[in-house]
């Protein structure tokens, strides 16, 4: 009888040890799961990875159709940053920007398809890709802005070495914009020509975001600093209508993918 009780006690102790080990392993597993699901710091929104095919089409939509086959494409892995998904032969490179360092605000609903020529890829696209990588590594918005500004001051980042442009003629973007410089999903195809340290006074421009007519002609847009300054040329209404018609499938697919990517006229009723 005593031997049976001893065997029972030993078995009960073994079960307790097993339970403790299982609980400890479960805690470790949950910790690692939490790390993989949250690339940013606690309290900051995690970026969702887009389907590769949709993100590729979205990025390339920033280019005129005739230039797309020769362009490089970078896709975002929120855990790591941008990776080269397709090599190009023209010097043009495209991606969908999800982190805008100068806004000092990490969001999960920024979508800005854009493409740069070779000079812009070496200068501006490099900064965007570094910003995405640093965010993935856990840096906060204010620290990211300080780091990027420091790299500009130290000469690691520079303005493009020669004239060129960024193509942004896609049918959809979600960014700060007219008429109030708040976050909007919009169709605003345009070109951005490098104009380091230029001002609207330099070219006599008088843009008013609330006045569409004042944006028809070129104006200057300073994006964070003097090096990231552009001369903007919006596409005309006829050109925009043509782009929207030709890219209707992409517009519909983006809206089906995520509500925030629906253009205002396409939004589902509440």
Task: Please provide a written account of the structure.
An eight-stranded mixed beta sheet has the order 2-1-3-4-5-8-10-9, sandwiched between helices. The protein has a two-stranded antiparallel sheet with strand order 6-7. Residues 1-12 and 14-39 have low confidence and may be disordered. The protein is globular and about 45 Å long. The protein is α+β, with helices and mostly antiparallel strands and 270 residues long. It folds into two domains: 1-37; 52-266, no CATH class. It is 37% helix and 19% strand. The termini are far apart.
How many distinct folded domains? 2
Number of strands: 10
Mean pLDDT equals: 88
What would the principal axes of the Cα set say about the shape?
Answer: globular
Percent in strands? 15-25%
Strand order of the largest sheet: 2-1-3-4-5-8-10-9
Q: Helix/strand-derived class?
A: alpha+beta
Low-confidence parts lasting 5 or more residues at pLDDT below 50? 1-12, 14-39
Rounded to the nearest angstrom, the radius of gyration is 25 Å
Characterize the biggest β-sheet: 8 strands, mixed
Estimate percent helicity: 25-40%
H-E order: HHEEEEHHEEEEHEEHH
In whole angstroms, how far apart are the ends? 72 Å
Tally of contiguous helical segments:
7
């Amino acid at each position: 009888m005593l031997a049976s009780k001893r065997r029972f006690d030993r078995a009960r102790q073994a079960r307790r040890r097993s339970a403790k080990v299982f609980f400890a392993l479960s805690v470790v597993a949950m910790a690692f799961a939490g790390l993989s699901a949250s690339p940013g710091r606690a309290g900051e929104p995690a970026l969702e990875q887009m389907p590769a095919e949709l993100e590729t089409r979205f990025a390339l939509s920033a280019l005129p159709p005739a230039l797309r086959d020769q362009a490089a494409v970078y896709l975002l892995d929120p855990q790591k940053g941008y990776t080269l998904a397709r090599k190009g032969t023209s010097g043009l490179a495209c991606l969908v920007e999800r982190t805008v360092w100068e806004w000092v605000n990490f969001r999960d609903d920024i979508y800005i398809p854009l493409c740069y020529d070779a000079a812009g890829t070496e200068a501006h696209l490099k900064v965007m890709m570094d910003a995405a990588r640093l965010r993935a590594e856990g840096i906060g918005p204010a620290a990211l802005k300080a780091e990027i500004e420091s790299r500009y001051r130290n000469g690691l980042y520079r303005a493009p070495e020669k004239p060129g442009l960024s193509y942004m003629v896609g049918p959809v973007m979600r960014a700060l914009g007219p008429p109030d410089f708040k976050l909007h999903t919009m169709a605003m195809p345009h070109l951005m020509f490098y104009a380091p340290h230029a001002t609207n006074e330099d070219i006599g421009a008088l843009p008013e975001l609330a006045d569409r007519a004042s944006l028809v002609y070129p104006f200057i847009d300073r994006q964070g600093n003097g090096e990231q300054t552009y001369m903007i040329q919006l596409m005309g209404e006829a050109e925009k209508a043509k782009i929207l018609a030709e890219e209707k499938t992409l517009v519909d697919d983006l809206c089906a993918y995520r509500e925030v990517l629906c253009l205002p006229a396409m939004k589902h009723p509440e």
